[in-house]
Design brief:
With about 120 residues, the protein is mainly beta. The protein is built from no helices and eleven strands. Strands 2, 4, 5, 6, 9, 10 and 11 form a seven-stranded mixed beta sheet that branches. Strands 1-3-8-7 form a four-stranded antiparallel beta sheet, with no helix packed on it. The protein is globular, with a radius of gyration of 13 Å.
Length: about 120
Amino acid sequence: QVQLVESGGGLAQPGGSLRLSCATSGFTFSTHAMNWVRQAPGKGLEWVSSIYSKNSDTAYADSVKGRFTISRDNAKNTLYLQMNSLKPEDTALYYCARGMYTFGYWGQGTQVTVSS
C-alpha cells in the first residue's frame, strides 16, 4: 500500500535551517507529482511547495519562496524540503502529499517549531 513517512522536523532558532524528508513506498515515485503542505497551530492547511514528475519543475508559496527548496531523489523514492532562514511563522506540522491538483495520499506529518 501507499506509504509516506515524514522525518526531520524539530526545534530550530529563527534564521536556522532544517531539512525534511518524506520516504515513500507502494507506488512508482518517479511518475507522481509530490507536495509539501503545512498546518500551523489553530489554522488551516497551507500549500507550501510542489515538484513535478517529468521535468522536476517546482513551485512555491510566496511565504516560503527564496527560503525553502523542494527536491526529489527518484532512486531513493524520497522527497525533501530544505528550509533556510526559518521564521517563527514557519512553525507548523509539515505533511508530504502525493498528487497534482488533488492530493490523494498524505503522510502523518513532522512537527517544525521555530523559536528562540
